[in-house]
Amino acid sequence: MKKHYLYLFVFLSMFLMSATTFSQDLLLNSKYQAIVEDYFNQNKEEFNLLENDFNDIVIDKEVFSKSTKLTHLYLNQRYQGIEIFNATSSLAIKDNSVFYYANNFVANIASKVNSTSPQLTAEEAILEVATKLNLGSTIGLENIEKKGFRYLFSNGGISKSDIPVKLVFFLDEENNLKLSWDLSIHTIDGQDWWSVRIDALSGDIIDKTNWMVKCSFEGDHELHNHEIENNIKDNTSTFKLFNEESFMVDGSQYNVFALPIESPNHGDRSLVIEPADPLASPYGWHDVNGVSGAEYTITRGNNVWAQEDINGNDGTGYSPDGTNNLNFDFNLNINQDPNSYQDPSITNLFYMNNVMHDIWYKYGFDEESGNFQENNYGNGGLGGDYVYADGQDGSSLNNAVFGTPPEGTNPYMQMYLWSEVDDPQPLTINTGSLAGGYTASYPATGPGNNITAPSSTPITADLALVSDGSANPEEGCSALSNWFLVNGKIAVIKRGNCSFVEKIQFAQNAGAVAVIMVNHNNPDNDPNYVEYVNMAGESTPEFTIPSIFINYDNGQPIINSLQNGDVINATIVNNAFRRDGSFDNGIVSHEYGHGISTRLTGGPNNSNCLQNGEQMGEGWSDWFALMVTLDSDDVAEDLRGIATYADGQSAAGVGIRPVQYTTDMSANNYTYGATNNDTLLGYDTNGNPVNWNDSVHNIGFVWGTVLWDLTWAYIDKYGFDPDLYNGTGGNNKVMQIVIDGLKLQPCSPGFVQGRDAILAADMALTGGEDQCLIWEVFANRGLGVNASQGFPTIMTDQVEDFTMPDENDPSLANCTTLSVNEFNQSDFKIYPNPTDNNINIKVNRSFGNVKATLFDINGRKVLSQSGELNNIMTLNVNNVQSGIYVLNIEGTNVSMNHKVIIK
C-alpha cells in the first residue's frame, strides 16, 4: 500500500490573505519554505505536476493544532497571480518536516488556461449575477477596496453584506481552466448566500453554490408513525454540564433539554447552572469584551445571538431576557401554539449553540481554526463571526439551514417550525373511574375517502354503545335499534363483520355526533400506538361526524362500563400543533456541525470546499448530532433516527434517513458502493436492491454510517466517558480523531481522502495505535485498501472494496488488534457479490483444506462445504434465500469472515 503520510510540493511565493477582507499583510517568507522545497525536489513526480504548476502558490491559512502538534498549511494554487478556484491542498508540518500532504492541485495548468485578460469588469460581473439570479436592481454599488485581483464592493442594495469579488480560474467538466469572477451575495431576504463563478469572457454563470446549507429534513409524513412518545430517562443528566473549577461565576441558569437528551421525546428539561466551559468561554456565554461581567442579559453573547424571526425577514427579533441574574428558567407547555413558548424555545437554541461551541473547542475547533466568536480573546483567528441563530423562522417549514461564510463573517442558523402533528390523545373521558386521556388513531385519507377525522373544535357528549338487534349488536352493521339512545351521543362501535363506512353511516343516521371504533380482541392486530387506520370509503351523503379508532385494551373497558349502565362523558378533539425545531437538539447540533466541517475542510478562509458531489457534509453533521446525544445506556446495535421529534415520530422512529444509524448490518447494510447513483444503489435487509436519489443527504448518510461504526469500535476498545469536555473514553478519542482528520483532508474531498485523513490523524495522535481498528471499520463498509473514489466531483465512479491492508504493512506495526489472521486478505477474491447463483472463492496461493460456511445474520448455518482451496472454490447458493450473509472460511492457514449478499 502506498503511503501518503509524508507528501509535499514546493511554493516560491507565500501569502496570507483573508477571503473577504484585505486586512492581513502578505507573508513573503515562511520558516517552512526550505523544508517543503527540499522534500518536493525528492517527491515531485508523485503528483505529476510540472514546475509551472507549483511556482505560484499562496498560503491561504496557517493553523496550529494543539492535539496533534501539527501546523496545517492550506495552500492555494495560482497561475500568473490568479487563484485557481478550490485548488486548495492541505499540508501538515510536524517536528520541522512534512508529516502529511493531501493534494488537490491541477496538473499542467498552462495548457488548460483559456485567458488571463477578463472582458467583464468586477462590477459588471456583479450586475450579471444580480440579473441572472433575479436579485433586483443594484443601488449605489461602488468599489470600496481593491488589492491585486481582489475587490470589495458595497452591498448595492442586493446583499446583506458587502460583496467580495476576485478573479479566478475555474476548472470545468471538460478539464479546462476558465477565467472567471468569483463573488458571493447574501440575499436581502437571508434565504440564500450565493457563491458564484461567472465567466469573465462571456458573462455566463458557470458554477454556483449556496452557503446556506438547506438540510431538507422533511420526511414523508404519510409513512411515519406520528406518536408523541416520551422515553424519559433519569432526569439527572450524565452529561458534564459545567466545570466546577471555572473561575467564571455569573449565576447564569437555563431550563433546557440538557444534553445528552435529544428532544422532548427523549427526556425532560432540567436546570443547568453556569454551564460555560472555562477554557472555551472563559467569560461566560453573555460576554463580548473579555472583562468579567455580562454585556448582555438576553440570549446573546460571544458565541451566538439567538432570537425569533417569525416574520422571516432575517432582521433583529425578540430575545428572552434573563435579567441581571441571567435566569433563563421559563415555563413550558409544549402542546400548544409555538408562539406561546418563545422564551424556552430560544433559550434552548442559545444553550445548544453555546454547548456545541464549547464541546468542539476542546477537540480543536478553536479560534485559530476559524470557530465562531465575536471576540477571540487574543487566541488567533479573525473574530467578528458569532452565530446568528434564528428560532421559529417564518420563511419556511420542515427544514433547518446553516450558512457558513469564510472566517470573519457571521454564519447564520435558521430553525423552523414543522408541520402540524395530530394530537395522539384525541379522546378524553371526563367522568368516572375511566377518566383520562386515551391514545387513538385517525382515519387514513385517500382518493374517494370522506371519513372525517376530529378537528380542533371539541365535541363533548355522553357515550352510547350501539345496538342493531343482531347476534352481534355492538358491531352496528345495520340500522340501529337503539337509535333514540345514540341520538346526540358519541357512538361506541365494535370493529366487526362489515365496513367502517357502513358502521359510521348507521351511527350518523341515528343522530350520533361522533364515533369511537373499538378494535376486536386480536392481539396481533391491536395497535397500542397512533397510526392512520384505513377506514377509507365513500358515503352518500358525505359524513359530517368525526371518528377515531382505539385498541381493544382501551376500548373494551369502556364497553364493559356502558354495558353496566354507567354514564360516561367524553370529549373528542384534535389539538394539532406544530413542533419547534429548536427543541430537537439533534437538528441544532447537525446544523452547527455544518459550520464545523466547512470551516475545517480546506481552512477557514474557504467556504466552498464541501460543494463537490462526493462531499460528506451531511454525514459529519449527523455524526456530530449522534455524538453529543450519546448516553451511557446506549449500545452499538441501538437504532438511532435523525430528527425524529421534529418530524412527528416517536423516539424510536426511523427519522429522515434511508434507515437508522446502527452497527447492526442486518438493519443498516449500506456500504460505499451505495453512493454510486447509477449502479449499486444499496440493498434492504432481504438483499433486494433499493433505489434512492443521489442527494448529498443520502451520500452523507453512508459516511455517517462509517463514522458511527468507528465510534463504537473506539468505545468497545476504550469504553464510554459521559464527560464530553475532558473525558478519556473511546467516544472522546474518536471525537478528537475526526476533528483532526477534517483539518488534514484537502478541499473537495471524497470518501477515500476522508478515510486517509483519519488514518493520518491517528498516526499524529498515537503513532498508529488504532490503525488496525480504523481499517477494520472502513473495510467492513467497503472502504478497504483497494477502494477508489474516482473523481470526487462525479457520483458514478466509486469502487468499493472490503479488503484489509497487508498485515506486514509498517503502518500496522503498533496495532493491538487485527481481524485478519495468518494470511493476507488481498490473496482472496470473492465474487460475484451480490450473487444469485454461485459464490466463487479465488486465491493466488494454496491454503490447503478449508471449510467454507455461510451464516445468516442471526448466526444460523445455512450452507457448508469443505475442500482444497488452491485456485477456485465454488459454492452453489441457488437454494439460499435472498439476504445478507457472512461467509466464514476456516483452515490450518486461514481464518476469515466476508460479507456476501444473495439476491
From TrEMBL:
Its main location: secreted. It comes from the Bacteria. Residues 461-557 form the PA domain. CDD domains: M36, PA_subtilisin_1. InterPro entries: Fungal_virulence_M36, PA_dom_sf, PA_domain, Peptidase_M36, Peptidase_M4/M1_CTD_sf, Secre_tail. Residues 830-902 form the Secretion system C-terminal sorting domain. One of its GO terms (molecular function) is metalloendopeptidase activity. Its cofactor is Zn(2+). It is found in: Secreted. One of its GO terms (cellular component) is extracellular space. Pfam families: PA, Peptidase_M36, Por_Secre_tail. Keywords: Hydrolase, Metal-binding, Metalloprotease, Protease, Secreted, Signal, Zinc, Zymogen. GO terms for biological process: proteolysis. Residues 1-23 form the signal peptide. Belongs to the peptidase M36 family. This is T9SS-dependent M36 family metallopeptidase.
